[in-house]
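Hi U.,

Before I forget, here's the chain from the pilot set. I'm dumping it here mostly so it's searchable later in email.
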Amino acid sequence: MGSTLEAQKKKAPKPKKKKVTVSPGKPYYSSSTLRAGFETALPSANLSETYKKSSSFGKYSPLAALLTASRKTGASYAPEEYAKGSRLAEKVAKEEIKRNDGGIARKTRVF
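Structure:
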């Protein structure tokens, strides 16, 4: 009789987590702390991604690393929703820089 109860527990569907989509034009805020984390981290994340694209070191840019470290340190001491907003801002910044990168004219050297 105990095995049927265990079998029923295994068969029960697990609730799926709702995927949150956020973009600068269409923000999604489930709480005020998530909003604060997103809006606080977005400018820093954009600048960090810009440094990664324009630096001669590429993704190993020291300035980008400092910005990212300071943003993550601040988020680690904040509530979980704030940290989640910060992580979402980082994803949005990466996508925004990728999207804007294709339309920008490249600098060329003229000797």
